[in-house]
Amino acid sequence: MKHITKKDIELPKRKKSSKKGDNGRVLIIGGSKEYVGAVALAGLAALRSGCDWVNVAAPEKVAWAVNCLSSDLITVKLKGDYISLKHYAQINKLIKKYNTILIGNGIGIKNETKQLINKIIKIDKNKVIDADGLKQIRLQDVKDTVLTPHHKEFSILLKNSKLKKNNFKKYLNNNVILLKGPTDVIISKNKTMFNKTGNEGMSKAGTGDVLAGLTAGFLAQSKDLQQSAINAAYFSGLIGDILLKKKKGFTYLASDMVEEIKRFHRKEIIL
Question: Which residues of 182-210 are buried (b: 16+ CB within 10 A; e: fewer)?
Fold first, then answer.
């Protein structure tokens, strides 16, 4: 059993000659009438990872709320309360400008949304799929992707894929699964690793969106699916552990985690 340690962490390196966009561009597709905050948390986490540019494509009311929350996030305002197949042409034009897609956070479960998601996952880009996005796809249809389910979402994914826990790895292809839990499990076709950072305070709403944003941000910079999942799981849990001590209990929020991410650029956090 291989547990992740500081030796397994490889932060993306920036060149002194870097210009805007060289260190990753993430497009986040999500949000709905019911769920406004998920894409904001994911977007800010992606930026805090060191990624240069994050754009949130969301229903217009969600996008305006994101703009009010942060001036650092760019938004594309899609007409309506939910993302659907009618937005595909508009989103597809956007995708060409980005090297990583994050889809699923707060996106909801509607039939037209499902149709859109299943077109997006076939696009030839590195991707992270989280939350409601995981409930509307088959594992066999995905490539170049980090999937970030908790255990219930993983069961739904396997059911929709008509697979079982003892055979799903045959259909994993080049994808990586970051299975969230008290101990996170990072699964690729030839390797499984375990992450023990984190605590029970991370069961709060929004912490998974932060993890997904971190994963997408790291992936946009490194283009390494497995390393991005390892980095995100380790740092997300470590930040939760820091906040547990800092707040002296389980009062910390997902938004506190976003703010605390900046600490991992200090050398002492992984020593």
Answer: eebbbbbeeeebebebbeebbebebbbbb
Record the pTM: 0.96
User: Pick the residue with more confidence: 247 or 206?
Assistant: 206
Amino acid found at 153? E
Fold for the domain defined by 23-270: UDP-N-acetylmuramoyl-L-alanine:D-glutamate ligase (3.40.1190)
Residue type, 185: V
Other C-beta atoms within 10 Å of 267: how many?
A: 7
Any residues with CB less than 8 A from the CB of 146 and at least 6 apart, and which?
Answer: 127, 128, 129, 175, 176, 177, 178, 215, 219, 225, 228, 229
Report which of 86, 130, 84, 139 is spatially closest to residue 104, judged by C-alpha positions: 130
Round to whole Å and give the CA distance between 133 and 150: 12
Residue 217 contacts residue 26 (beta carbons within 8 Å): yes
The alpha carbon dihedral of 209, 152, 178, 29 has a sign of negative
Q: Positive or negative CA dihedral for 160, 165, 171, 177?
A: positive
Domain range annotation of the chain: 23-270
Structure confidence at residue 247 as a pLDDT band (50, 70, 90)? confident
Instruction: Please say whether the beta carbons of 219 and 230 come within 8 A.
Output: no
Nearest in space to 150 (alpha carbons), one of 225, 224, 202, 106: 202
Please tell me the distance from the alpha carbon of residue 1 to that of residue 73, in angstroms, as a whole number: 39
